[in-house]
From TrEMBL:
Protein name: Fatty-acyl-CoA synthase
Residues annotated as domain AMP-binding enzyme C-terminal: 455-534
Swiss-Prot/TrEMBL GO biological process terms: fatty acid metabolic process
AMP-dependent synthetase/ligase domain mapped to chain residues: 28-404
Length: 546
């Protein structure tokens, strides 16, 4: 009978802790001249990036930032944000990314709750900061970010970012420490109550980066990302580390392009000028890019785009594919760092028409090291038949271990030893997951579960529809009934009967239950969204119920 043996390393062996600083080693060695670009304002190499990381660490060290202290950041997607992604955790401090789209009260709450001692803030966000500054008891220093130098500093600011770096040394000895030390903190969007703080360790960030990079690079054809790609996020860097992809791009040594305060026109400018080939974002942003007048003359044939944060509608996927864009879905959440799945198409299904489109718009295959289950209320796994629905629960080495300073909510999150996503999904025999709805958004009508996401997708397949949102509203007979909000394509028309008739065709072919045809269809100019671009269904239910 054999017994397990622990490893007893020799004293001189280096244990190699999984720290954020390790993600820089290979790219600095193999591609020191690779470029990092910020709009049309800044362009420098990975070697210069490394020097600026050291300068920033030296500057923060002089300001008294020590191991375990928290540094909060308020900026657009920029090279400076990337520098802070590395410098702050590498010196043993915690980077807190402020969701600048929250209300001033929520911004104040998150900075105060995180215990930030330093706030690094772009000039554009000074109006927000001025409203809340008196409530930030923990903050000792404010550092100004600006794209163009201005002679005077605002009140309470004695420091400007570039001047601070210029006065600092280009070498810093980043220490080794426990890989389980907290590296980052950010806050959920707070659609229910106050925002919750999620946090991630160095070990978790490194393992997430390695797994996502492996998932990208292991694809044989479709969805394959590699070191020759040019990366540009269309996701705010305050939101789940821009889905963790800046760490992946740096590890692989990609050229990186940061758009700042973005718009469709800025995205198109950078795609054309910098040769961008890889991005990620919510469906709305891709739709805005494709709908921009300049898009008709833009070559998108080398662009790969991962859609997350909301389901990828088939109509949008078809529109992107028609322009040569390699579009596919990804899935995760704030609590999961975020990636859990990618909807890369297996080679045998490429060119299979409707089947390929179906796979691209599913929620995806689990990436390496993810254990994903779909379970009933008793935590028993449901059938993998693409029909049986249940809650998606997961395990992976990078999932947040809880909510900051909220033990009861953390226990609920991890009930039964799995992280509960509160998403309702199905698993197919081929291993793909499809999210059917959020647990709080699924419509319970006449004892039947009706997926709001499915109805939205089907409505969006009508050629006159640009986007749609579906919510359940109270009904005395059925409990809940679907209500559809529809935004039409510019210059096109439709009425309620036309949309219902369109949906009826999917009832007749067995795609949609009859209970899925909304009682009401309302035509609106726009649909309310959360601070990270998701449809704000809680607000819509409150607004339209009754």
């Amino acid at each position: 009978m054999s017994t397990s043996q622990s490893i007893d390393p020799i004293t001189s062996a280096y244990a190699y802790p999984l720290l954020v600083k390790q993600l820089l080693r290979s790219s600095l060695a193999s591609c020191p001249d690779q470029q990092i670009v910020y709009r049309d304002l800044v362009r420098y190499t990975y070697s210069q990036f490394d020097e600026r990381i050291s300068r920033l660490a030296n500057a923060l060290d002089r300001l008294g930032v020590a191991m375990g202290d928290t540094v909060a950041v308020m900026d657009w997607d920029s090279h400076r944000y990337l520098e802070m992604y590395f410098a702050v955790p590498m010196m043993g401090a915690v980077m807190m990314t402020v969701n600048v789209r929250l209300s001033p009260d929520q911004v104040a709450y998150t900075i105060q709750h995180s215990g930030a001692s330093v706030v690094i803030v772009h000039r554009d966000f000074l109006p927000v900061l001025n409203k809340i500054r008196d409530r930030l008891d923990t903050v000792k220093q404010f550092i100004l970010l600006q794209d163009s130098p201005e002679p005077s500093l605002p009140d309470s600011f004695s420091l400007e970012y570039e001047a601070l770096l210029e006065a600092s040394g280009t070498s810093f000895e980043f220490p080794d420490f426990d890989e389980n030390s907290r590296a980052t903190t950010f806050y959920t969007t707070g659609t229910t109550g106050l925002p919750k703080g999620v946090f991630f360790s160095h070990r978790q960030l490194v393992l997430h980066t390695l797994s996502v990079a492996m998932a990208f690079t292991s694809a044989a054809q479709q969805g394959r990302i590699h070191r020759d790609d040019v990366y540009m996020p269309m996701t705010p860097m305050f939101h789940v580390h821009a889905w963790g992809v800046p760490y992946v791009a740096t590890l692989l040594g990609m050229k990186q392009v940061y758009p700042g305060r973005y718009s469709p026109e800025i995205f198109i400018d950078l795609i054309e000028r910098e040769g961008v080939t890889f991005s990620h974002g919510v469906p709305t942003l891709l739709d805005m890019v494709l709908g921009h007048p300049r898009a008709r003359a833009t070559n998108f044939s080398r662009w790969k785009v991962i859609i997350g944060g909301a389901a990828l509608p088939k109509a949008l996927a078809e529109a992107a594919l028609s322009r040569g864009i390699d579009v596919f879905a990804g899935y995760g959440m704030s609590e999961t760092c975020p990636f859990l799945t990618l909807s890369q198409v297996k080679s045998a299904s490429l060119g299979a028409g409707p089947q390929e489109l179906e796979l691209r718009t599913r929620t995806g295959l689990p990436i390496p090291l993810v254990e994903l289950r779909v379970v009933d209320e008793g935590m028993q796994e449901v059938a993998h038949d693409g029909i049986a629905m249940g809650e998606v629960v997961v395990r992976a080495p990078w999932l947040t271990q809880g909510y900051l300073h909220e033990p009861s909510a953390s226990e609920e999150l991890w009930s039964g030893g799995y992280l509960h996503t509160k998403d309702i999904g199905v698993l197919y025999p081929d291993g793909y997951l499809r999210i059917k709805d959020r647990l709080k958004d699924v419509i319970k009508s006449g004892g039947e579960w009706v997926s709001s996401l499915m109805i939205e997708d089907l409505i969006c397949r009508h050629p006159s529809v640009r986007e749609a949102a579906v919510v359940g509203v109270k009904d005395s007979l059925w409990g809940e009934r679907p209500l559809a909000l529809v935004v039409l394509q510019e210059g096109l028309s439709a009425d309620e009967s036309l949309i219902k008739s369109h949906l009826l065709s999917y009832v007749e072919n067995g795609t949609l239950s009859k209970m899925g045809i909304p009682d009401r269809v309302l035509f609106v100019d726009s649909i309310e969204r959360t601070s990270v671009g998701k449809i704000n269904k809680k607000l819509l239910r409150q607004k339209y119920d009754g």
